[in-house]
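Researcher: Please predict.
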Amino acid sequence: MKRSAISGLILLLIPLFSFSQVLDPVQWSFKTKRSGQDEATLMMIAKIDKGWHLYSQHLPSGGPLPTVFKFNESKDYSLMGETSEPKAIEEYDPNFEMILRFFDGTVVFAQKIKILTKNAFTIGGELEYMCCDDHQCLPPTGVDMTFKLDAAGNEAISKQTTPVIAVVATTEPVSDSVTMHEAAEPQSATPTVAEPPVESSTEESSSMWVFFVVALLAGFAGALTPCVYPMIPMTVTFFMSSSKSKAGARANALFYGLSIIVIYTFIGVLVTVLFGSDSIKNISANWITNVIFFLLFTAFAASFFGLFEIVLPAKLTNKSDQQVDKGGLIGTFFMALTLVLVSFSCTAPFIGGILVEASSGNILKPTIGMFGFSLAFALPFTILAFFPSLLSKMPKSGGWLNSVKVVLGFIILALGMKFLLVPNQVLGLGITREIYIAIWIVLFTLMGLYLMGKIKFSHDSDVPHIGVPRLLLIIATFTFVIYLLPGMIGAPLKSVSAFLPAESSFNLVDIIQENRGNGTSPEEAWYLCDQPKYGDQLKMAHGLQGYFDYNQALACAKQQNKPVLIDFTGHGCVNCKVMERTVWPDPEVMKRLREDYIIAALYVDEQTELPESEWITSTVDGKVKKTIGRKNVDFEISRFNVNAQPYYVILDTAGKVLIPSRGFDTNIQGFIDFLDKGQEVFRSERSN
């Protein structure tokens, strides 16, 4: 009785925690402007809520659906050319491996028409668009367009319309058993556009911290290069001998360190001021600049291997060094500037890498990156000046410094491969994910052999024996090589996925799962009750098996006595792909998805037209839904009062919601807990 009462209480409380809403982040208005004696311009004005972006009309195939304008044919007018749009923001999206074009704020699309009548007339049509923010995407949304022109061709009425998909109640009816053909009646409600979730700013803050830590590590690595490391004891000794007291030496060293930080941080600020966040972002998305970045990183690596040395003009270094003789704080500052200039041949790859990685458009990133680098770079000089006794414990300069430089060369060359992602997609170079991984395997294998002394460069010293630090680095290197090997057969390699193309051309796991699940007859399939509808054109990620039709999934759930996991997803949903790349491959997540649930992957942007017998008339907007995608969108809205993806819902075999639903969240443990809680409530319900 107690268990039954608790389960009942949980079900009663679900609606209180399942507040959801149909989002409407783009408001459209339509205007007409006379542009000639018998010409006019139709203007479609989109006002986009903060944090959201609307896709351009011009997108490559295989990605999100572009914005499309369709004007009804009429003898009263004819279209003149294509619908125009302003310059779009362009960003490379690793999930689709393509450059996506989109708008934010307010954007005006324009269509010129030739007027063919002397009478007043009306132009009708429909537009369809997709939009996303950092956490969710909306399905293709249709909006009716109406333009009324008087006899002179001027605007008669400026009409603002709302999307075809209507807003419904904000509380989800969870106690009813509902099929897709029995959607709840809509209720009137005022749409409330949600601000971007708090998690978005939290994730951005976390990303900045990660970037800062990476910059710190780069600074420490820069201090260990042959251009810098030998100068540490020399500089500290100079401070100690030239100052009249320990306090004076420490003060000079502290100012010296602060000067290094100021110089490097100034470079970061200067980059931001000169280019601005938008320009940096556009540069990072351009295939030409990415090719240049790749060539630069290759040149840096060649320099570290000893092919040549990258140095600044000697005149510049000499001028700075001359100012050191002035002494005092001015002399100390120019001493720091001289170090920065002299060490350029070793620090250039780190500085360049930080500034390139700061090209996400965040205006603070170049400054934060350079501050982190310079802080770590300056610390050894300052700390050793405060504690000069530590100088005697420092490893002496020698051949190991050149080994550090060569190892960094291998790493820089591997990281530089990332800049081929954009030109690979734009130019169609055909460099697959497996080729990237193969190159990395070769590079890090060579690095391991180099550390073992099996490979030598002309300027290397002999390695008579392997010390413990070198041994640990060898172990780490070959461990990483072994980690990369499964990537050749389709393993996700989550820790380095950002540096690789998203899709594998060969996935052994998926092939095994598909062959195991697709027998010659429905009865032979170990994982399904029957063959999934639309299974010939729709697939699930990672070889998972399930259904693409809600009613079919629910029937199988009843047969196998398992809960249903509805995955509202889309071909063009960026965040759905992020979840599938970062969360779903986790072994614990995959185990639960394969064993504990019947999955219903409902694609909201699938354009395949249904047979007429499967058309439905929406209770939301009264329109007939003829495609798989529109039918699924209508189901998501009418049943769950949501139109965003990704969206995950757990139901029992009667179609009743078991626990609060879940949207975009890349916390793997959170997703595992979500699946476990659904199973727990399902088992509790079945036992009563």
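Model: The domain at 26-161 is CATH 2.60.40.1250 (Immunoglobulin-like).
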